Amino acid sequence: MISHVLIFTKEQDIVLKNIAMYIEEMIIYRYGKCNAIDKGLSLTEKSILSFLACGMDRKEIMYEMNISETTLRRYIDKLKFKFKAKNDITLVLNAIDAGIIDTRGRLL
Hints:
This protein is an all-alpha fold.
Protein backbone atom coordinates (compact mmCIF):
# COMPACT_ATOMS: atom_id res chain seq x y z
CA MET A 1 0.00 0.00 0.00
CA ILE A 2 1.35 3.35 -1.06
CA SER A 3 0.49 6.39 1.00
CA HIS A 4 0.85 9.89 -0.33
CA VAL A 5 1.94 12.67 1.91
CA LEU A 6 1.58 16.23 0.80
CA ILE A 7 4.34 18.53 1.87
CA PHE A 8 3.62 22.26 1.80
CA THR A 9 6.06 25.09 1.96
CA LYS A 10 5.69 27.55 4.83
CA GLU A 11 4.10 30.09 2.46
CA GLN A 12 1.60 27.53 1.16
CA ASP A 13 0.75 26.54 4.71
CA ILE A 14 0.06 30.18 5.63
CA VAL A 15 -2.13 30.64 2.55
CA LEU A 16 -4.14 27.50 3.35
CA LYS A 17 -4.64 28.61 6.96
CA ASN A 18 -5.82 32.04 5.75
CA ILE A 19 -8.28 30.41 3.36
CA ALA A 20 -9.61 28.18 6.14
CA MET A 21 -10.00 31.17 8.49
CA TYR A 22 -11.82 33.15 5.79
CA ILE A 23 -14.24 30.28 5.10
CA GLU A 24 -14.91 29.88 8.81
CA GLU A 25 -15.59 33.62 9.20
CA MET A 26 -17.99 33.60 6.25
CA ILE A 27 -19.90 30.63 7.67
CA ILE A 28 -20.21 32.35 11.05
CA TYR A 29 -21.26 35.61 9.35
CA ARG A 30 -23.90 33.91 7.20
CA TYR A 31 -25.26 31.93 10.15
CA GLY A 32 -25.56 35.11 12.21
CA LYS A 33 -27.18 36.97 9.32
CA CYS A 34 -29.70 34.18 8.73
CA ASN A 35 -30.64 33.99 12.40
CA ALA A 36 -31.03 37.76 12.66
CA ILE A 37 -33.31 37.94 9.61
CA ASP A 38 -35.27 34.82 10.51
CA LYS A 39 -35.99 36.05 14.05
CA GLY A 40 -37.29 39.32 12.64
CA LEU A 41 -39.84 37.68 10.33
CA SER A 42 -43.44 36.96 11.24
CA LEU A 43 -45.21 33.81 10.08
CA THR A 44 -47.20 35.99 7.66
CA GLU A 45 -44.00 37.37 6.11
CA LYS A 46 -42.55 33.87 5.78
CA SER A 47 -45.76 32.67 4.14
CA ILE A 48 -45.66 35.53 1.64
CA LEU A 49 -42.06 34.65 0.76
CA SER A 50 -43.08 31.04 0.32
CA PHE A 51 -46.01 31.93 -1.94
CA LEU A 52 -43.86 34.25 -4.07
CA ALA A 53 -41.21 31.53 -4.45
CA CYS A 54 -43.93 29.11 -5.56
CA GLY A 55 -44.81 31.49 -8.39
CA MET A 56 -48.10 32.76 -7.04
CA ASP A 57 -49.12 36.20 -8.22
CA ARG A 58 -50.26 38.89 -5.81
CA LYS A 59 -53.97 38.27 -6.37
CA GLU A 60 -53.54 34.60 -5.51
CA ILE A 61 -51.58 35.49 -2.37
CA MET A 62 -54.23 38.02 -1.31
CA TYR A 63 -56.94 35.38 -1.75
CA GLU A 64 -54.97 32.64 0.01
CA MET A 65 -54.11 34.84 3.00
CA ASN A 66 -57.41 36.75 3.04
CA ILE A 67 -55.69 40.15 3.07
CA SER A 68 -56.15 43.31 1.02
CA GLU A 69 -53.89 44.50 -1.76
CA THR A 70 -52.68 47.39 0.44
CA THR A 71 -51.80 45.03 3.29
CA LEU A 72 -49.93 42.68 0.97
CA ARG A 73 -48.05 45.61 -0.58
CA ARG A 74 -47.01 46.78 2.90
CA TYR A 75 -45.75 43.33 3.82
CA ILE A 76 -43.80 42.99 0.58
CA ASP A 77 -42.30 46.48 0.93
CA LYS A 78 -41.24 45.63 4.48
CA LEU A 79 -39.70 42.36 3.27
CA LYS A 80 -37.85 44.14 0.47
CA PHE A 81 -36.37 46.51 3.04
CA LYS A 82 -35.31 43.64 5.33
CA PHE A 83 -33.71 41.70 2.48
CA LYS A 84 -32.34 44.77 0.65
CA ALA A 85 -34.25 43.82 -2.49
CA LYS A 86 -35.55 46.10 -5.23
CA ASN A 87 -38.05 43.67 -6.74
CA ASP A 88 -39.90 40.45 -5.97
CA ILE A 89 -37.38 38.23 -7.77
CA THR A 90 -34.44 39.61 -5.81
CA LEU A 91 -36.52 39.31 -2.64
CA VAL A 92 -37.11 35.60 -3.22
CA LEU A 93 -33.48 34.97 -4.19
CA ASN A 94 -32.23 36.76 -1.07
CA ALA A 95 -34.67 34.79 1.11
CA ILE A 96 -33.36 31.55 -0.40
CA ASP A 97 -29.78 32.71 0.12
CA ALA A 98 -30.55 33.58 3.75
CA GLY A 99 -31.94 30.09 4.34
CA ILE A 100 -35.52 31.20 5.04
CA ILE A 101 -37.07 29.23 2.16
CA ASP A 102 -35.79 26.66 -0.30
CA THR A 103 -35.96 26.89 -4.08
CA ARG A 104 -39.45 25.36 -4.06
CA GLY A 105 -40.78 27.87 -1.55
CA ARG A 106 -40.80 25.54 1.44
CA LEU A 107 -40.03 27.19 4.77
CA LEU A 108 -36.76 26.03 6.29
